[in-house]
Specification:
This protein is globular. It has no helices and 3 strands. It has one domain. By secondary structure, the chain is an all-beta fold. Bound molecules: zinc ion (ZN).
Length: 75
């Protein structure tokens, strides 16, 4: 299973939602070095966290992650 690179100091607990920022590190992509935000990012098992670039399809590096409090309600 692919896993996004994660910046130093960023950790995830399993099965929780986070607000994250992530950066595209692919120099061939129009999004190179741009930082994006995700308002509700799910941590899966806390290890295999995955955010793809919508343009080049490569994994983006997760720069920051803030645990959502309260957690969003999931139907
Ligand atoms: Zn990209």
């Amino acid at each position: 299973m692919p896993t996004s690179p994660v910046a130093d100091g960023v950790t995830f607990q399993p099965n929780l939602y986070y607000a994250t920022t992530q950066r595209d590190n692919n120099p061939d992509c129009d999004n190179y070095n741009k930082v994006f935000e995700a308002a509700e990012f799910y941590s899966n098992d806390g290890v295999h966290v995955v955010i793809y670039c919508g343009r080049c399809g490569q994994l983006m590096e997760i720069l920051t992650a803030a645990l959502l409090d309260p957690q969003p309600e999931v139907m």
